[in-house]
């Protein structure tokens, strides 16, 4: 069966039983995409990038009138994704011929990967602390890192409406998840931020709830 495993680095280890490959491919489809992520990585970072595999079924005997269109789509997709370190492309002929066996695949065990992830996140938290001036916010940053929460995208961010009017200031922001931390000084701005779709927390006992919901 066609499948792929993320070995902790940008490369993917592609495996298949070539004798039964056709069993898992549809006769009218030539371009497939697969996506996956290691559970160990997901536990440490809910925003971790997903590994993506693009597979082209180019076996001569399986080609239909849609082959040229999907062949073009495959290469267009590869052009868009080529600089993504979590992307890999392959073909059924390459799999059948074991052409990818010679590729250098980096193998990293889970413990090493987790340690590396923790180190990178520690650096990110250090950069965020340098942007904080409020002691209350610094203490919250320490607590969040201790709890294993991924570092936010930014610090000291002003939220604005469609007209550009500032309606709230958030000390720590996780933009994609629309999660923010506010200090007590900005208590009055919490409601406007939440009406705008942000999940705001201001105390330690709110952390777990906000991040679980997000």
| Tally of separate helices | 7
Shape: elongated
Radius of gyration from the alpha-carbon trace, in angstroms: 23 Å
Helix content: 25-40%
Question: What is the average of the pLDDT values?
Answer: 80
- Strand-residue fraction? 15-25%
Q: Give me the secondary-structure category.
A: alpha/beta
Number of strands: 9
Please describe the biggest sheet, giving its number of strands, its sense, and whether it closes into a barrel: 4 strands, mixed
pLDDT below 50 for ≥5 consecutive residues: which ranges? 1-20, 110-116
Q: What is the terminal-to-terminal distance?
A: 34 Å
SSE order in H/E notation? EEEHEHEHHHEEEHEH
Task: List the strand order in the largest sheet.
Answer: 6-7-8-9
Write a concise synopsis of the structure shown:
By secondary structure, this protein is an alpha/beta fold.
Overview of this protein structure:
This protein is elongated. The chain has seven helices and nine strands, in the order E-E-E-H-E-H-E-H-H-H-E-E-E-H-E-H. The chain has 214 residues and is an alpha/beta fold.
What's the helix and strand layout?
Elements: E1 3-6, E2 12-15, E3 31-36, H1 39-44, E4 51-56, H2 67-81, E5 87-91, H3 92-96, H4 110-129, H5 135-146, E6 154-160, E7 166-174, E8 179-181, H6 190-195, E9 199-201, H7 207-213
Parallel strand pairs: 4-5, 8-9
Antiparallel strand pairs: 1-2, 3-4, 6-7, 7-8
């Amino acid at each position: 069966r066609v499948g792929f495993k993320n070995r902790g680095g940008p490369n993917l280890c592609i495996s298949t039983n070539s004798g039964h490959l056709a069993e898992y491919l549809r006769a009218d489809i030539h371009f497939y995409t697969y996506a996956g992520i290691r559970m160990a990585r997901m536990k440490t970072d809910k925003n971790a990038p997903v590994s993506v595999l693009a597979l082209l079924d180019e076996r001569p005997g399986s080609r239909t009138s849609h082959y040229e269109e999907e062949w073009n789509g495959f290469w267009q997709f590869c052009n868009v994704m080529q600089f993504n370190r979590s992307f890999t492309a392959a073909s059924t002929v390459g799999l059948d011929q074991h052409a990818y066996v010679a590729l250098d695949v980096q193998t990293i065990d889970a413990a090493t990967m987790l340690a590396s992830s923790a180190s990178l996140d520690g650096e990110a938290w250090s950069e965020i602390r340098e942007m904080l001036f409020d002691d209350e916010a610094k203490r919250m940053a320490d607590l969040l890192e201790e709890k294993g929460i991924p570092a936010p995208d930014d610090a000291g961010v002003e939220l604005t409406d469609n007209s550009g009017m500032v309606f709230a200031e958030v000390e720590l922001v996780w933009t994609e998840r629309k999660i923010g931390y506010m200090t007590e000084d900005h208590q009055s701005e919490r409601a406007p931020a939440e009406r705008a779709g942000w999940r705001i927390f201001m105390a330690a006992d709110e952390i777990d709830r906000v991040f679980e919901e997000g």
